[in-house]
Target: cAMP-dependent protein kinase
Amino acid sequence: MDEKLQKHCTTFDQSLRRSKREFEAKFSQELKQNCTMDDFDMLRVLGSGSFGMVVLCRDKRNNKTYALKLMEKGNVIKTKQLVHTAAEIKLMKNLNFPFIVDMHGFFMDKVYVGICMSFANGGDMFTHLRDLKKFDEPLAKFYAAQVIMAFEYFHFLGVVYRDLKPENILVDSQGYLKVTDLGFCKKIDNARTYTLCGTPEYLAPEIILSQGYNKSVDWWSMGVLIFEMAAGYAPFYARDPMKLYEKIVSGKYTCPVHFSKALKDLLSNMLVVDRSKRYGLLKNGSKDVKGHEWFKNVDFDQILAKRVIPSYQPKVDSETDTRYFDTSEKMFELKKLSTDPYETDFNQMFTQSIQNG
Model:
């Protein structure tokens, strides 16, 4: 490891230790609602799914625009996502890192649970990867450096992310990233967990084999992401899920001919089925990844300070430009109820979930 990177790692480790102290102090505090639905003017729907919808909104209190994730209480309980939802809100409230989505507030009313987040109007990485077909290696390195530092932050706090994929990485108007969708995050510290969750192409072998896992799965998925950014497709693919899982467990993949020697070497050390040999988990931890030859000319400090001008920036005209989202210009109607049919069960379960972390 060269002297510049060594200095960065020392300073970054000190910063992570401070962050952990702050996180642990706040994590045990009671989580209070700090906004209501009436605080926002709804502009347009940015996306929707089984969870609910994300709406571009303007906060009447400060005139700033945000992304508001609205989840119907009934759906949360019906799909048994209450614990995940509570954990996501509690975690987001206490996180503070440049490359992880930040939460400005949350509320519950008779129908919805709302999470107010910063709006990254460059859309998600998947949109840009689809349009560009693939990223050149310098751009892939720039993006990978940010996700790696986000993972270092998560892991230092004892949190495993478990849902890395281009769709869960937002790009802001300056071309920097925000890791989002923290519903599968779990604070496990040094323990292991066994839940089968994540996107099939990004699942680590140990998840598929039900072996119990920790941060190992994030370093595997980091390898998958780097491959997909540089190739335009994932290293493991099959229409049949069982065949896909067989390929992942075998650990066999083929790199495109345009991959540099350094990139191939890095992937060969990250996409390793044997966790005792996987980069990110060895004695030097994440420093093995950041100190690899592929990242030789990457200045992590400058990227962390957002002083590097990205080679690619989304084309947006304003903070409310939504061209990179599948938006609906139609007026939408928020549901309203005179009574909350889930009030007792939901509030008790939600409070208990937050208290238990």
